[in-house]
Amino acid sequence: MIAIFFVGNSLITPKITSVTEELIQDIIQGNLKSKENIVAFEFNQLNNSFKNSQKILQNLENNSFEFVREKLLFTSDLALEHHSIHNSFVSIISSNDVNENYFSNKKDSLYQKEIKALLKEIQFINNDVLIDTILTKNGNVINRKIYAKKQRNSKIVYTGYDVDLISLWSYFSETYKGDGGYTVVANKDGICMLHPDTKYIGKKIDMYFNTISVEQILKSSLKINGYYVPDNVNSLKDKAISEFLGLEVLRYFDTIITGNTPLIVVISFPIDIHLKETTKNIQGYFSWISFLAFSTFMLILLVSRLQLKKEYVENIKVVEEKEHLINSNEKYQKENAILQLNQLKKKINPHFLFNSLNSLHVLIDLNPDLSQQFVLKLADVYRYLLEEREGNLISVKKEITFLEQYVFLQEIRFNKSLSVSIVNNCDAEILGRKIPFLSLETLVENAIKHNEITKIKPLIIEILIDKDFITVKNNFTPRKHKTKDSHHIGLNYLENTYQFYKIATFKTGVVDGKFVCTLPYIT
């Protein structure tokens, strides 16, 4: 048993590694969406003031020009409250080429001259124009946005602001601590806007788009009314060697939208760190759980051996005391001893317990709530099995209640490959009648043991409760390789019980491709 335990453990470990990798992929997908939402939130926060200025200019006709000017100035100054907005301005050019320039509270004469020169170079194709560019200035990397709109009175109104991308990255990296992966943001031209290594900010990062181009990434998102909506069905990913970490990373590419401008978000996750460390931890937990399950199994086996020995000694004494009874009485005692032995074998089934603990091990990580129900059901099953009772009969109601708990455990083990239905066509009086103890469980277990159970060929068991008997049916798909330790103990137990009570209507057989068993009630 110890050898089998270690061999089984070594065979299961690679499967655990495979399942762990799949789970980590799912976790990474969740982290990806979380990071995308963070990036979208921060860039939309930056864009709010600029967006408000656009709305003010677009609704200029509904308000006086002085009101709009004051509102633009207020919005421009308010934008400076954001930690990463470097400068902002408002400029009005009249028809007589007279400039009215209102700059932010940060007085910078060189900046004012630069903006005035830039505004003169702006060429209008339509009534409004939007400029979104990235430039390097005095060692800083600036994302400059300008919006200009012609008015009916021949005036042109300009508003804009500069975002310090180095400052933005400093805030972003401090506020959102990484969990093993890192985030890179680029604009639609492939120019880096955020990167953990600031030397890449403001430069084209072509090494990120060698195998997946910028055009492919933008096309992987749906464009609706000028906005990019992420297509969650076709997320793009690629493996590469990180220029930042020097490790192999798994990169996910997606598109977010700020205003009308698409941004490319690249999330990189180190494969070795995420997979190897997590897999090692899970394998450690599995080893402890396996050891606990094996120890529990051996303890139960030891207790059962001691109990068997005790009952064997007691049975020997009973046989010695009753040797003087007549032959018919000796036959009754022999059959009764067989029934007790079979009942004892059913009470503690090591294979059932070991399979249940294996199912519980898998269920703990996948569904903690369901695993708690599983443990309670397993406890109820063994409480029922170990309960002391006189004779080998039980009411139909109690047997069905126990069967439902037993089926709950088995259906979790086999998932959708096993289906057990119970149809009651009778009233409460019939549920009080007697049948052999564990008879329904024996037939269900027998069907599971001797038939194929796969997704393609699921095992379907029907239990019909009628006035005079209970019928148990299952589709007959016998396994190609029969179980070596099968001795038909279960069916022999039921047959001996009905013979003891002199009932001849207990029948089993294959009818129309189904294995059918008829269980008459015992009075």
UniProtKB/TrEMBL annotation:
GO terms for cellular component: membrane. The chain crosses the membrane at residues 285-303. Gene3D superfamilies: PAS domain. InterPro entries: Bact_2-comp_sensor_kinase, Sig_transdc_His_kin_internal. CDD domains: PDC2_HK_sensor. GO terms for molecular function: phosphorelay sensor kinase activity. Pfam families: His_kinase. Keywords: Membrane, Transmembrane, Transmembrane helix. Residues 340-417 form the Signal transduction histidine kinase internal region domain. This is Signal transduction histidine kinase internal region domain-containing protein.
